[in-house]
Amino acid sequence: MRRIMLAIAILSVSTTDTSAQLVPENSQAASVDIGYRRASSFRVDPFRHVMIPHWGFAFSFGGTGENSVLNFADIGALRFINNNDKIIPGDIIDVIGLIPAGKGLRVAAQADGGFHLGGPFGRHFSLGFSAQVRSYGSGLFSDGLASLVRDGNLTQSRFDIAGSGGIGLATAELGAHTVLRLGPLGTEDGIHLSLGIGGRLVRAGAYYQARPQLGSSTVFRSGPDSIVADLAFESFETSIDDFSDRFNSAPSSLVGDFLIRMEWPTNGFSFEAMFANLGSVTAPDVERKTAGLIVATTDPLFSGELADSIDAMDFVFVDSVDVYVKLPQIIRFSAGAWVNAIL
Q1: What is the pTM for the complete model shown?
Q2: Domain-located, residue 21
Q3: What are the pLDDT digits (tens) for 30-59?
Q4: 286: left (phi over 0), alpha (psi -120 to 50) or beta
Q5: Alpha-carbon 314 to chain mean position
Q6: DSSP annotation string for 218-250
Q7: Which has the closest alpha carbon to 142: 163, 111, 167?
Q8: Which end of the chain is less crowded, N or C, counting CB atoms within 10 A of the terminal residue's CB?
Q9: Residue 321 lies inside a defined structural domain of this protein
Q10: Is residue 123 part of a domain?
């Protein structure tokens, strides 16, 4: 009987110990502001200046770039392709050979710079304002165009280059963002929830796009060094001569940003979802131009007479149109963990 009572006493003591508070009340994790726990980011983040735990005024600039198939090693191989100090067209052809069959090359870039003012009103609400300029750019080197350069006529003699082209946009933006902080919910160790919403008034400035016209995007390659094509291209661009007048008369478009962040500070874990650039921008009175190019050459390396033909291609004004540009949407999910003992 004594042995049974002793076992019950030991179990009671053990149960009491395991149910004690996991993190002490004076844990640094409970006092560190969410603005410091949130992982720093050099990427596009419209809520960065709103999440800081104090009022501040800052100037920031940065940019990002990406492509669909090439890594740093592929791009770095350019240094070893040729011993010249500069990259020549033949080097670009060699890089195109690195694109896997069946895939094109898509590139995208974004850069911004501006002023930001933001900070908290108490523990549960933050507000921020921003004024910045931003530029967007993207391009597509289609699989048909890559096959034309990389594979020759080994598998086919007709290549569709539809979709190839590039686009660029520069904007001026005024933004306002808010963050509502709730928690801890339930218990002292419960979830901390942050809800962010904001908008930016975006006005389009410079705009440019070039692409093959529909129905004229086929190139024929009849031999190892023979290319025959009758192509038509079109471009859309803002005129620099009346750029200020066009910018002043351009309509402002509203673009939305959203943020959801869930955090368990004493457990050292967080999850965040951000949605940015939700909307489109209108670029008014964009000049549309067309140009034709007839190619019949045995020089596929973009040198000599072929390069001269491309340089001499003349775009002729056709009309002016309003262009509606859907901004590149950002959907980002991230999770973080930390050790409370370190904090």
Answers
A1: 0.72
A2: no
A3: 566 666 667 555 567 888 888 887 888 888
A4: beta
A5: 33
A6: EEEEEETTEEEEEEEEEEEE--STTHHHHHHHS
A7: 163
A8: N
A9: yes
A10: yes
